[in-house]
Amino acid sequence: MQTRDCNWHDTFHACAWALFPRAKARINALHVAAGAASAPNGRSPLRDLLTLFDESGIVIACADPALAALLGGFAWHELFWVQRAGVLRAMEFTVFGHALFENCHALYDGVTGKGIVVPVDAGYFRLPIAERLAHLDGAIEQYFAHAPAAGRGPRDLQPLPLKGIPGWAAENESAAYYRDERQFRPGRLHRPRPQP
After folding, report:
1. What is the pLDDT of residues 13-37, one digit of tens each?
2. Residue 160: CB partners within 8 Å, gap ≥ 6?
3. What is the percent of the chain where pLDDT is above 70?
4. Which backbone phi and psi does 36 adopt, to 5 degrees?
5. Which of these, 5, 68, 137, 195, has the minimum number of CB atoms within 10 Å of its CB?
6. pLDDT confidence band for 106 (50 / 70 / 90)
7. Shortest CA distance to 24 belongs to which of 81, 96, 114, 94?
C-alpha cells in the first residue's frame, strides 16, 4: 500500500489493512457499489457510515450483555467505574479507524471512537491476538455486508470516549473523572441498533 513519507495517517491506514483485510475490502467494495449520492457531500447515509467507521472506528468485543447495555445507554460512570472489573474481564477495545489511530498517538480529551460491539464468549479472551483479530475482522466484514439491507447509517455506531477506557489514561483512575460531561455525554434519543 502506498504511503507518504513521515505521515502517520497513511501509516496507520496501512496498519488497518494489515489487521482487518476482510473488513477493509468490504468497506471499499461498498463505497464503489454505492457510487455518488445527491447529498451535498456526495455520500449516502451508508457511505457516511463507511467513512466514519473507516476513519474513527473502534471494535468492542464484549462477553457480557449487561456491559454492552451500559455502553449503549451512555452509563459511563456505571460502566467504566462501578463495573470496572467486569470491563477489564469481559471487554476488549481494538482501534480500527486510521484517523483514530493517529489521535491515539497523542491521546487528548474528547477523542471519541465510533464503535461496533461484537458479542464474544469468555473463551475469546484466551485466544492468541492473531486469532482474536481474525475473529473481529470477520465480524466487522459481516456487519458491513448486511449494512445496505439493514439501512444502517452513522447513528448506528456507538460513541466511545477513549480516555474513559480503563487503562487508557491515567486520569480515569478517579471516579470523579467520569462526571465530566464535556467528555462523557449523557447520550442521545436514538440508540444504535443491535450489532452482530
Report:
1. 677 778 899 999 999 899 888 775 5
2. 58, 60, 71, 93, 112, 113, 114, 115
3. 84
4. -80, 155
5. 5
6. confident
7. 96
Q: What does the alpha-carbon distance between residue 132 and residue 155 come to, in Å, rounded to a whole number? A: 26
Phi-psi bin for 6: left (phi > 0), alpha (psi -120 to 50), beta?
left
Report the pLDDT value the prediction gives residue 44, as an integer from 0 to 100: 81
CB atoms within 10 A of CB 7: 11
Q: Is the pLDDT of residue 186 over 70?
A: yes
Q: Is 5 helix (H, G, I), strand (E, B) or coil?
A: coil
Beta-sheet strand order (sheet of 112-119): 91-95, 57-62, 112-119, 158-161
Q: Average per-residue pLDDT in the chain?
A: 87
Other CB atoms closer than 10 Å to residue 18's CB: what's the count? Answer: 10
Spell out the long-range contacts of 175-184 with Cβ–Cβ below 8 A and sequence spacing 24 or more.
Answer: 175/77, 175/81, 178/76, 178/77, 178/80, 178/81, 179/77, 182/109, 182/110, 183/109, 183/110, 184/74, 184/76, 184/77
Identity at 195, one-letter amino acid code = Q
Q: Measured between alpha carbons, how far is 30 from 32 in angstroms, rounded to an integer?
A: 5
